[in-house]
Amino acid sequence: MTVNDERVDVNVTEKVNATENVIDVSQKTSQKTSQKIIDLIKEDPYISTSKMAEIIGVDRRNIARNIKKLQEQGVVRRVGPDKGGFWEVIV
């Protein structure tokens, strides 16, 4: 193995480690956002995704994505229509 080969191996390893760190931070952030969403729903079941986004400080699409995951996990559900319905925390 030459010096250049060793440098490539180190660079690849550093990039893999950096990518793993970004994924880990992203998952932790998503978990925090999900918990904030659950707390907001418990506080006000009629809260809109736009209002959640405003309070938490993230984009509404991020809220929608997190709520979808929470619904798939059976943590929250929507009762009634988009307008006039409410959120329910199941777990």
What do these coordinates show?
- The chain has a two-stranded antiparallel ribbon.
- Helix content is 68%, strand content 9%.
- The mean pLDDT is 83.
- Helix 1 packs across helix 3 and helix 2 packs across helix 3.
- Strand 1 and strand 2 form a beta hairpin.
- It has three helices and two strands, in the order H-H-H-E-E.
- With 91 residues, it is mainly alpha-helical.
Provide a compact summary of the structure.
The chain has 91 residues and is mainly alpha-helical.
Features:
single chain, 91 residues, mainly alpha, two-stranded antiparallel sheet, 3 helices, 2 strands, 68% helix
Structural class estimated from helices and strands: mainly alpha
How confident overall, as mean pLDDT?
A: 83
Q: Please state how the strands of the largest beta sheet are arranged side by side.
A: 1-2
Estimate the global geometry from the Cα principal axes.
elongated
SS summary, helix count: 3
Instruction: Please summarize the sheet with the most strands.
Output: 2 strands, antiparallel
Question: Which secondary structure elements does this structure contain, and how are they paired or packed?
Answer:
Blueprint: H1 3-43, H2 49-56, H3 60-72, E1 76-79, E2 86-89
Antiparallel strand pairs: 1-2
Helix pairs in contact: 1-3, 2-3
